[in-house]
Amino acid sequence: MDLLTGMPNVSYFSKFGDDFLRKLLKQAGQVDVIYFDISSLHSYNDHFGFLQGNQLIKKCREIIRASFQEGLTLRYVDDSFLTITAPSQLKKLMPEIQKKVADFSADKVTTVRAGVYQVKEMEPATSAVDKAHLTLRYMGDDRHKAYQVYNTSVKKPFEVQDYLMGHFEEALSQNWLKVYYQPKKICNFEAVSR
Predict the structure, then answer these.
(1) Is the sign of the CA dihedral 149, 154, 158, 163 positive or negative?
(2) What's the burial of 158, exposed, middle or buried (CB within 10 Å: 0-12/13-18/19+)?
(3) CB of 110 within 8 A of CB of 40?
(4) Is 20 exposed, middle or buried (0-12, 13-18, 19+ CB in 10 A)?
């Protein structure tokens, strides 16, 4: 159990996540894995202090848990929460969740955002969470978007990045990279690899 929130934590998820996902998938036919993150909690803590930040985390627990009573909600890592639930009314619920969190927060701006992965066939729960987290990362710093659902446009940039990082050494050793110099001023150059 998480000491701050009293919720199940990542250890609980590691032990029981697959079983819970399998059971819910069998009952509902599809499962939403929702990865919530408190926006800019580190700056919030810097400005208002850790005690106020802890209060915000506890309030998020209360709001998210109340919104998804039928599912499994846990504190995942740092300032993130995870909910595994039957397909939800996220489009309706997310604005309500964001408003409640913002209304409670000391700055009246800090709120939560979510990445969502919809599980249609059984897969490891950790894989589903990774996809939900990737979706949240895909959103970047766009605070105008409350949530994003995983799709091929979310997947593509990360696949390209993984490919490039995985093949960089090979490209160097095979001389696939060429260096071109672009003059910026008379006294210096910028090297560009293509």
Answers:
(1) positive
(2) middle
(3) yes
(4) middle
Distance CA 111, CA 40 (A): 9
The CA-to-CA distance between both ends of the chain, in Å, stands at 50
The CA distance from 179 to 135, in Å, is: 34
Structure tokens at 93: 């619920």
pLDDT confidence of residue 176: 77
Length of the chain, in residues:
194
131/115 Cα distance (integer angstroms): 8
Question: What span, in angstroms and rounded, lies between the C-alpha atoms of 17 and 84?
Answer: 9
Two structure tokens written together for 40: 């800019």
Low-confidence ranges of the chain (pLDDT < 70): 155-164, 167, 179-194
DSSP label at 111? -
- CA-CA distance, 64 to 190, in Å (whole number)? 50
Q: CB of 84 within 8 A of CB of 20?
A: yes
